[in-house]
TrEMBL record:
Subcellular localization: Cytoplasm
GO cellular component terms attached to this protein's record: cytoplasm
A GO MF label: flavin adenine dinucleotide binding
Annotated Pyridine nucleotide-disulphide oxidoreductase dimerisation domain residues: 374-485
The keyword Oxidoreductase appears for this protein: yes
InterPro entries: Class-I_Pyr_Nuc-Dis_Oxidored (IPR050151), FAD/NAD-bd_sf (IPR036188), FAD/NAD-binding_dom (IPR023753), FAD/NAD-linked_Rdtase_dimer_sf (IPR016156), Lipoamide_DH (IPR006258), Pyr_nuc-diS_OxRdtase (IPR001100), Pyr_nucl-diS_OxRdtase_dimer (IPR004099), Pyr_OxRdtase_I_AS (IPR012999)
GO biological process: 2-oxoglutarate metabolic process
Cofactor(s) in the UniProt record: FAD
Record-annotated FAD/NAD(P)-binding domain positions: 37-354
Family to which the UniProt record says this protein belongs: Belongs to the class-I pyridine nucleotide-disulfide oxidoreductase family.
Protein name, entry field: Unannotated protein
Keyword terms, alphabetized: Cytoplasm, Disulfide bond, FAD, Flavoprotein, NAD, Oxidoreductase, Redox-active center
Length: 497
């Protein structure tokens, strides 16, 4: 009989264990209260805590209710731990490939316990910093499950603050989201996990199937593959990375193939048959794949169970709170922001919505957020970053477009780094002479593109034209030269193109 699988994971992930006493930082005071507040925020993730911090900085008296830990998905089981583990994968790659630079090191091995400890240190440090900020701005933090009732009454129960009732002149619902699951792949603590559990793995599987090739699927597939797991992505749609330009997706798929990741698209998954040490995932017509671990990453479901009776707040069929372009729900004086509404499920969108509603509450007239132009940054290897239209979406929207692409293969800095996979693609409105006018979209795949998106993002959002930005100088040698080169070539002339 073969040995038991070597992987395991810590099932006491905080999101599934609300009773954990460590959910409060030693520096956080739990304040039982019966006051009226200017603003009561239910949910202490990025959207909720940003509302509290920004509102408090403008002098509002604010209470925030959190049933687990302030910081939410992003800090505890999302952006931060995922990027920390991806950085471990990057260090592993660097050591593995060091001999190419004449630096001879022993082949790397991974001590995942140490990795997990480092990840937790980063989270704890950020958590303490956040708690300090909330305390410093005199935000009242109430520990427990909050429910909204008629007339802006909010009741809290089940937490360390005990039974509390409070009211807010304005109430903000920022209750976030949880992993979506699919029939036939229930999380079992053995073979099937979601992002919540995979972030706490204590041993690596030799083989894994990732169901869903979106942002989460691609980040985990990349991380596992770089650390030595044989990964297969099973995606229902014809391409991975929804929302990404087709050329960018192709570049990622090519790079994934080189790492040994199999990407199988256009296949439904039907279920899995557990064996002793592996489980057989059934997909497509007759496909079957034996793996030690299945990661389900098929999107997130909004968490909107914070409504009592008579609130007047409506939900969509998919469970999001209904809001208008000002993030106002169907109830007077009640806003909803972040992952619990149907806008891009990104921490920085939650931050932007928080600032946007506080400005409204303060009587200012901020411009509604243009969700089609928000920045996207996906931290797989190679990284992906984009803002604005894809080529396909721009054409569908009725634009006549001109595009330019340049590959990192020819960029000096990328060669120096040894990371030449990927490209820059710029989509612009076509002028009568065939050159590019207004920049409509920018799509990047390659080294550090998540940090390079800035100038493309500004160009898209400022509605800059190609000739306006082609005049800007890029430092040499730099990765950003490729953006300059791509934009320059849309003027009809180029240097290295
Ligand atoms: P959440 O972060 O989910 O916070 C909601 C909070 O409300 C939670 O703390 C919850 O406990 C609390 N709550 C819910 N209901 C109640 C209630 N009734 N009473 C009291 N408290 C309640 N986004 C990025 O921008 N960049 C990334 O790199 C990125 N990486 C990600 C990686 C992974 C693996 C995952 C899962 C997500 C990632 N995201 C990323 C998405 C990002 O985490 C979310 O968009 C973001 O956390 C949403 O913020 P939020 O405040 O709306 O909700
Ligand atoms: P996603 O919506 O990005 O991708 C889900 C993928 O699963 C899609 O490609 C979809 O077609 C596929 N899918 C759905 N059902 C399926 C099925 N039954 N079988 C096979 N494939 C199926 O969702 P994901 O990756 O779970 O991430 C959720 C959200 O979290 C993202 O949309 C993003 O907003 C946020 N996020 C952002 C990150 C970042 O900004 N770096 C990183 C991770 C998550």
């Amino acid at each position: 009989m073969s040995e038991a699988p070597t992987w395991s994971h810590d099932t006491s992930v905080w999101f599934r264990d609300p009773g954990r006493a460590d959910r409060l930082s030693p520096t956080l005071e739990v304040v039982p209260t019966a006051e009226n507040f200017d603003l009561v925020v239910i949910g202490g993730g990025p959207a909720g805590y940003a509302t509290a911090l920004y509102g408090a900085s403008a002098g509002l008296n604010i209470a925030i209710i959190e049933k687990q830990k302030v910081g939410g998905t992003c800090l505890h089981v999302g952006c931060i731990p995922a990027k920390e583990l991806l950085e471990t994968a990057a260090v592993f790659r660097t050591v593995r490939d060091a001999s190419e630079f004449g630096v001879n090191a022993s082949p790397p091995t991974l001590d995942l316990q140490v990795t997990q400890q480092r990840k937790q240190r980063v989270i704890d440090q950020l958590f303490d910093g956040l708690v300090g900020l909330l305390k410093g701005r005199k935000v009242t933090v109430i520990d427990g499950f909050g429910t909204l009732h008629a007339d802006h009454v909010v009741r809290v129960s089940g937490g360390l603050s005990g039974e509390v009732e409070l009211t807010g002149a304005v109430v903000v619902l920022a209750t976030g989201s949880v992993p979506r699951t699919i029939t036939g792949f229930e999380v079992d603590g053995r073979f099937v996990v979601t992002s919540d559990e995979i972030l706490s793995l204590t041993d690596l599987p030799a083989t894994a199937a990732v169901i869903g090739g979106g942002a989460i699927g691609c980040e985990f597939a990349s991380m596992l593959a770089d650390l030595g797991t044989k990964v297969t992505i099973l995606e229902a749609l014809p391409k991975i990375l929804p929302g990404c330009d087709a050329d960018a997706t192709k570049a990622v798929e090519r790079a994934f193939k080189k790492k040994g990741i199999d990407v199988i698209t256009g296949v439904p998954v039907h279920g899995h048959d557990p064996g002793e040490n592996t489980t057989a995932v059934r997909y497509g017509d007759n496909g079957s794949l034996d793996v030690e671990l299945v990661c389900v990453s098929v999107g997130r479901s909004p968490l909107t169970d914070a409504l009592g009776d008579g609130t007047g707040v409506e939900r969509t069929e998919r469970g999001h709170y209904v809001v208008d372009e000002y993030c106002r729900t169907t109830a007077e004086g009640v806003y909803a922001i972040g992952d619990c509404i149907a806008t891009p499920a990104l921490a920085h969108v939650g931050f932007a919505e928080a600032i946007f509603i506080v400005q409204q509450i303060l009587g200012e007239s901020p411009t509604p957020i243009d969700y089609g132009k928000v920045p996207w940054a996906i931290y797989c290897n190679p990284e992906v970053a984009f803002a604005g239209y894809t080529e396909e979406a721009a054409i569908k929207a009725g634009f006549e477009v001109v595009t330019a692409k340049h590959r990192f293969m020819g960029n000096g800095r990328a060669m120096i780094l040894g990371e030449t996979e990927g490209l820059v693609k710029v989509i612009a409105e076509k002028r009568a002479d065939g050159t590019g006018g207004r920049v409509l979209g920018i799509h990047l795949v390659g080294p550090w593109v998540t940090e390079q998106l800035g100038q493309g993002y500004l160009a898209v959002n400022w509605e800059a034209t190609v000739d306006e930005i082609a005049a800007f100088i890029q430092p040499h040698p730099s990765l950003s030269e490729l953006f300059g080169e791509t934009v320059l070539s849309l003027t009809g002339r180029s240097l290295h193109g």
